[in-house]
Specification:
The chain is mainly alpha-helical. It is 51% helix and 7% strand. It is built from six helices and three strands. Strands 1-3-2 form a three-stranded antiparallel beta sheet. The termini are far apart.
């Protein structure tokens, strides 16, 4: 059994050394040509490049929907201002989903501005999880 093990190790080592010699002797263009998508012998596996180009840009791990556009600090501050103004007009306070509905925001747009408003003490909160109610400070 140990002779079989030694033979396999010897062949694997010889293969690895031969492969390294071939790679060292090849130009970068040759290597890239062999690994280019559409090359019969290599490239990426899975969805063809044409199908990948037309796929929707959904965020990984999310069900449906598209990724939100990147928002600048000014965009976030503008939403914070709208939230504070809305809460000042509602003395009984509002839950996050009510704020979202009244400001016509996507559900993914609410957490960051709310956190900023709480951090700057422009807004206070009472309750936990979905029962959390936000008030103007």
């Amino acid at each position: 059994m140990s002779t079989l093990h030694n033979t396999i190790n010897s062949l694997a080592s010889e293969f690895a050394h031969s492969l390294l010699r071939a790679l060292r002797g090849a130009s970068l263009e040759e290597i890239l040509a062999e690994t280019a998508p559409g090359h019969a012998g290599g490239g990426r596996r899975g969805r063809p490049a044409a199908a990948a180009a037309h796929a929707p840009s959904a965020a990984p791990g999310r069900r449906g929907g598209r990724r939100l556009a990147r928002r600048s600090a000014q965009d976030i501050q503008a939403v914070v201002g709208k939230m504070v103004a809305l809460l000042k007009g509602n003395k009984k306070g509002l839950r996050a989903e009510e704020i979202r509905e009244k400001l016509h925001l996507d559900r993914r747009e609410v957490p960051r501005p709310l956190a900023e408003a709480l951090k700057k003490k422009l807004v206070t909160k009472k309750g936990k999880k979905r029962a959390t109610t936000y008030y103007a400070a």
